[in-house]
Amino acid sequence: YNWNEVEKYKRLRTYYYSFFEMIDTIHFNSSVTKQVFYNHNVPINNEKTILITHKGLKNQKIKKTFGKTVRFSYLGGFSSRKGCEILINALDNVYGKGYRNFKLNTFSSFPYERAYINEGVPYQYSEIRGVFEKTDVLILPSIWNETFGFTVLEALSYDVPVIVSSHAGSKDLIDNKNGWIVEPEVEDLTKIIIKILEENCQKLKDINKYICNNIEIKTMREHTQEIMDKCYK
What is the pLDDT of residues 151-162, one digit of tens each? Predict the structure, then answer.
């Protein structure tokens, strides 16, 4: 080790940590963000975990119909940290076991050629309704910690079931009634996908119905009021 560099880093770390000691309350946007801070022993006087939203969201209340082929969608770009290899390896496993009743929609260039991939082009936010009309299940398989992940919230606003990594902050929105939380591992994702395919869409219909009837997407006005009530009173 270069002990001089280590000592310099320690001093820098202490300097930055001193900033946190002067903060009265920290707003964490998810349990993942909160855990990262605590794992690094950041000094925290007080904290509130409040999930976030954005102004473009509203409840769509769409009762979806599901065909014989399940349309999974991945909305991110190609990136290892986003879990692309895990997703493809899991779907390869599923395909290799003889399942043919699924497709994967992507919306960016993928370095893979598979019979089950429908490769699309990047979309504008104004086109998001069309994206979710083509989606039966959204998959967010992040490997790296992700503070939130608006795509999960957007999917729920269009009443779409979600498979989300335990490393994504937006997992806080998901329970076994509106989707699935998985470890970002090939085996875990494979099991969930096969389970969905074998249930002949009945589970997806139940989840869609549950989201329509029970999930309310926070407006920015509601989110602002929540911040005011929990952080400033």
Answer: 999 999 999 999
